[in-house]
Amino acid sequence: MKVRVNMKRFSFLLVFCLLSFAGNNIYAGDDSPKVEFIKYLNINKGYPLPVVRQNDDSGYLVLGSVDYPKVKEDIDFLLMKFDSSGKLLWEKKFGGKKTDLAMNFIISTDGNIIVVGGTSSFDDKGIFLMKINKEGNELWQKIFPTKTAANAIQEVPGTGFILSSNFYDLENRTFDIHIIGTDYDGNKLWEKKFGDKDSSEDCEFLRRTADGDFLIIGPTIKSGNYDTLLIKIDKTGKVIWNKRFGSTTESEKPVSIAESDDGDYVFLTNISDSIKLFKVDKSGKLISEKIYPKIEGAALEKTSDGNFIISGSTDSKLLLMKIDKDLNLTWKKVFDEYKTVGLSVKQTRDSGYILTGITDKVFLLKTKVKTENR
């Protein structure tokens, strides 16, 4: 007796079974990310969160903070240098007698390190901007008496730097976005403030675009509801356009933004227990959006193949996922062995990934290059 097989039904069942056995991970073959090394770091787990960058010699720089329990309000920041295999080469502490919080850093075109944050260790409390050489030695520091901290910085090629913070509007009792432009020696050239009188705004992330302008993304908060504010400015702080994205039913908290190879912009937000991705064109007009449930996003970066990598967590486990330029999932990897929260992520020069996360300690994790062989 011959048995007829419904091939369409069989194919569907086969795919269903394969996905079921895959669990949280979606991969073809054995190309899922493998851990190359993990290093646990003696830095604070709380705010501000650690940031990682790869430098010119293929090593890694990690920025974090350390405190001294016996000394009230004494917090310094720590810069750590690792080689490409994760071996600690040096670490340097910076700070005064009170609180010095380093929020972010970049590696400038001259190979030095530019750090921004906030300080209360001096009479002029406010933003600090510091230049550090490749060996971890301070070259100079500038303080802007704003009584706030800067949380993002980008280089303005040929001019200097642009940094962002927020500013408290006493008249309207709201926070506005505060942008400062400096020369290469940290001297202020200009400053601009952006905000509405009936809502508070903040800059969560600052990105330089291929055309030499800058994108500011952050929350705009009104009556307890969070929406996303996206502003494009030129190198002098002049607004080119600004757009708002949000829902009347739930808050959206923006995380990061990156530019695609076709000149559009992709940004990541968190909504309740999901992430929401947006793609907009050069003028900020919405092209598409997509939701991925049960994920908390922490960072988004463009990869060398024109796609995007996202770090975060799902069910309190470390997550890496890759999407294409149209927001479609390429792959997703949950590291079941790490009950943790993913933080910053960068693609490395060998096409692996370097990221920071938190378990009972802060860690630095590197994946092998096989993640890109697909």
How would you characterize the overall build of this protein?
The protein is mainly β and 374 residues long. Helices cover 4% and strands 54% of the residues. The chain has one helix at residues 7-22; strands spanning 35-41, 51-54, 60-67, 75-82, 88-94, 100-107, 113-119, 126-132, 138-144, 152-156, 160-169, 174-183, 188-194, 200-201, 205-208, 214-222, 225-233, 239-245, 253-259, 265-271, 274-280, 286-293, 296-302, 308-314, 317-323, 329-335, 341-347, 353-358, 362-367. The strands form seven sheets. Strands 14, 15, 16, 17 and 18 form a five-stranded antiparallel beta sheet that branches. A four-stranded antiparallel beta sheet has the order 1-29-28-27, with no helix packed on it. The protein has a four-stranded antiparallel beta sheet with strand order 2-3-4-5, with no helix packed on it. β27 and β28 (353-358) form a beta hairpin. Mean pLDDT is 85; it is low at 1-5 and 7-23.
Show the helix and strand layout.
Blueprint: H1 7-22, E1 35-41, E2 51-54, E3 60-67, E4 75-82, E5 88-94, E6 100-107, E7 113-119, E8 126-132, E9 138-144, E10 152-156, E11 160-169, E12 174-183, E13 188-194, E14 200-201, E15 205-208, E16 214-222, E17 225-233, E18 239-245, E19 253-259, E20 265-271, E21 274-280, E22 286-293, E23 296-302, E24 308-314, E25 317-323, E26 329-335, E27 341-347, E28 353-358, E29 362-367
Antiparallel strand pairs: 1-29, 2-3, 3-4, 4-5, 6-7, 7-8, 8-9, 10-11, 11-12, 12-13, 14-16, 15-16, 16-17, 17-18, 19-20, 20-21, 21-22, 23-24, 24-25, 25-26, 27-28, 28-29
